């Protein structure tokens, strides 16, 4: 995939220009099952420390890329794209870095200004400063759509879980113009040991692939 096509799909980092559409789910409208499922999602995400997986990213225009994803909660995330894509994404120290290894050109935004920042919080609560706009169950999957209450213009994040047992399988980010970036996970491993240096973009070693200390 040509790099310009992939860059156009980086809505997962770029704040949206318009507020997400659709009303929020009123707490009074939530059924007991809805509340129970949201509590399960909160417990799962807050219990998630490390994750390693393969990913496939699909942009609004159909362009695709794949690679390896690492998450180390709270605060750390890394996406290494397979060749020929020279791109890498790293979240650490409150910043999200998008780096082009060929051009050696970084672009940095605050983690808190991106929809994915919600996943990296120390404590995830799906109420209050996070507004849930949708909860769907279909074909063994549970979908939860949300945004930061104080900054709806950043866009919407939909988390897709396998329902039994609960496991994060996919997320979608929708920007203010309705463009969707979809990331699907496979070969998921949780509770793995990761190298802290893999998330350090001030160290020259960050240009290499992720390292496992096992």
From TrEMBL:
Signal peptide: 1-26
Alphabetical UniProt keywords: Lipoprotein, Signal
Gene3D superfamilies on file: Lipoprotein localisation LolA/LolB/LppX
Domain of life per record: Bacteria
Pfam hit, one: LolA
Keyword Transmembrane helix: no
Record protein name field: Outer membrane lipoprotein-sorting protein
Protein species of origin: Muricoccus roseus
């Amino acid at each position: 995939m040509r790099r310009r096509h992939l860059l156009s799909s980086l809505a997962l980092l770029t704040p949206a220009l318009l507020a997400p559409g659709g009303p929020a789910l009123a707490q009074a409208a939530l059924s007991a099952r809805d509340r129970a499922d949201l509590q399960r999602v909160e417990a799962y995400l807050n219990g998630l420390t490390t994750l390693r997986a393969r990913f496939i990213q699909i942009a609004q225009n159909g362009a695709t890329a794949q690679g390896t994803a690492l998450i180390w909660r709270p605060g750390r995330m890394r996406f290494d794209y397979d060749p020929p894509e020279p791109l890498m994404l790293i979240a650490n120290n409150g910043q999200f870095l998008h780096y082009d290894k060929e051009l050696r050109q970084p672009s940095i935004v605050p983690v808190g200004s991106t929809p994915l920042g919600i996943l990296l919080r120390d404590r995830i609560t799906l109420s209050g400063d996070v507004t849930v706009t949708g909860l769907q169950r279909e074909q063994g999957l549970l979908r939860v759509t949300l945004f930061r209450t104080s900054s709806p213009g950043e866009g919407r994040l939909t988390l897709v879980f396998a329902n039994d047992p609960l496991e994060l399988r996919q997320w979608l980010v929708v920007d203010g113009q309705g463009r969707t970036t979809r990331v699907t996970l496979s070969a998921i491993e949780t509770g793995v040991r990761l190298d802290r240096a893999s998330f350090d973009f001030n160290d020259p070693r960050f240009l290499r692939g992720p390292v496992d200390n096992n």
